[in-house]
């Protein structure tokens, strides 16, 4: 049997298609492209991020999940401008996180990103009231009238359901109230992106739900793009998109959408799991899938008309 390869015209067309294709992440607010972070301690290297790809669109509210040590905090620290990647590319709202100088980095941390930490006490200054804590980032930026700062602080506290806590210091607030004030602080300078690392980690599940509602309010009312790292299954299943990180790379992604039954009118949430195919064609299969089918080392592949079949390798030669 003779097979004919692609003609010169085919090759030229493919090359032109590749050239005309928009650049990776051209329409995303956050773009991580093959991001690498290597830590060296006492001559031992740890690859915390091993070529991580992630795109987040403007206006998204999404969650990042993953086992301990998978690289979530490393990624958040890079996106927050607190740490620098070893290689790859990372851009947030047009700012290049690899090439930023010290001055730009300061401006980035003050104006472009807001951050909420897990430790409630780390988010607020203990000797300032809730309203003063929220006004502080605006004071540090400067250029805003005192009356505007006061008004915005109170509006944010009201929006997040803690308007009545305005004159209290952090130790006079519950953990949940402190986190909602912390969200207001992070939103004070109208950041493009709000990053939160385990914001409900120190709270009980009911309080955690209310904190999540506060993030949702910020996302819907102010249009802020929000990325939340969480172990909390309830939070992870409340967002439309949950991205899993495994061994320093994004592995799978769950997308949820609401469907309305045409006859009964009943709403239900449909979730589907996706795997990430990187630009080299690499695909990471979920370990529970591969373990169930005893897949290891080598798998059998077949290209079908509309899908690719993957089977365990049963040849034993
Ligand atoms: N400053 C550092 N120096 C050396 N190694 C580090 C440093 N920070 C993180 N690591 C290592 O990088 C890997 C990823 O850590 P990271 O904190 O990002 O994981 P994580 O997914 O946030 O975990 P957790 O859920 O436990 O917070 C781990 O092996 C960790 O030990």
- The structural class is alpha/beta
Instruction: Compute the separation of the termini in Å.
Output: 27 Å
How would you write the strand order of the largest sheet?
6-7-8-3-9-10-11
State the major sheet: 7 strands, mixed
Number of helices: 9
Question: How large a portion of the residues is in β-strands, by DSSP E?
Answer: 25-35%
Which CATH first-tier class of the domain at 58-78 and 102-260 would you pick?
Answer: Alpha Beta
Spans where pLDDT lies below 50 across 5 or more residues: none
Overall geometric form: globular
**Cα-atom Rg, whole angstroms?**
23 Å
- Distinct small-molecule ligands in the complex: adenosine-5'-triphosphate
Q: CATH-wise, what's the superfamily of the domain at 58-78 and 102-260?
A: P-loop containing nucleotide triphosphate hydrolases
Textual characterization of the structure:
By secondary structure, the protein is α/β, with parallel strands linked by helices. Among the domains are: 58-78 and 102-260, Rossmann fold; 285-317, no CATH class. Helix content is 31%, strand content 28%. It has nine helices and 13 strands. It has helices spanning 8-20, 72-79, 102-112, 130-141, 146-159, 175-187, 205-222, 233-236, 287-292, and strands spanning 30-41, 44-56, 61-65, 87-92, 95-96, 113-116, 193-197, 225-229, 241-246, 249-260, 267-275, 299-303, 308-312. Strands 6-7-8-3-9-10-11 form a seven-stranded mixed β-sheet, sandwiched between helices. Strand 4 and strand 5 form a beta hairpin. It is globular. Adenosine-5'-triphosphate binds at residues 39, 41, 46, 48, 66, 68-74.
């Amino acid at each position: 049997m003779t097979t004919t390869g692609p003609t010169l015209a085919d090759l030229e067309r493919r090359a032109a298609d590749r050239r005309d294709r928009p650049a990776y992440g051209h329409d995303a607010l956050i773009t991580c492209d093959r991001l690498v972070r290597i830590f060296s301690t006492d001559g031992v290297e740890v690859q915390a991020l091993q070529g991580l790809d992630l795109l987040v669109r403007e206006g998204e509210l999404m969650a990042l999940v993953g086992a301990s040590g998978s690289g979530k905090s490393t990624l958040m620290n890079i996106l927050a401008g607190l740490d620098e990647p070893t290689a790859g590319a990372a851009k947030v709202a047009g700012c290049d996180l690899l090439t930023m100088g010290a001055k730009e980095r300061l401006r980035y941390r003050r104006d472009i990103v807001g951050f909420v930490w897990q430790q409630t006490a780390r988010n607020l200054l203990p000797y300032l009231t809730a309203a003063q804590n929220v006004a502080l980032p605006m004071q540090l930026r400067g250029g805003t009238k005192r009356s505007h700062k006061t008004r915005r602080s109170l509006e944010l506290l009201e929006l997040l359901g803690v308007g009545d806590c305005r004159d209290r210091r952090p130790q006079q607030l519950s953990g949940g109230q402190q986190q909602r004030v912390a969200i207001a602080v992070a939103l004070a300078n109208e950041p493009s992106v709000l990053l939160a690392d385990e914001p409900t980690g120190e709270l009980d599940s009911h309080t955690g739900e209310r904190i999540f509602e506060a993030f949702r309010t910020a996302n819907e009312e102010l249009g802020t793009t929000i990325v939340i790292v969480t172990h909390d299954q309830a939070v992870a299943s409340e967002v439309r998109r949950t991205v899993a990180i495994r061994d320093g790379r994004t592995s799978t992604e769950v997308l949820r959408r609401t469907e309305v039954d045409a006859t009964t009118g009943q709403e239900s949430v449909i979730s589907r799991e996706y795997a990430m195919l990187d630009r080299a064609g690499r695909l990471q299969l979920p370990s529970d899938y591969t373990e169930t089918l005893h897949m290891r080392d080598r798998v059998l592949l077949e290209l079908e008309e509309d899908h690719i079949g993957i089977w365990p390798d049963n040849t034993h030669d």
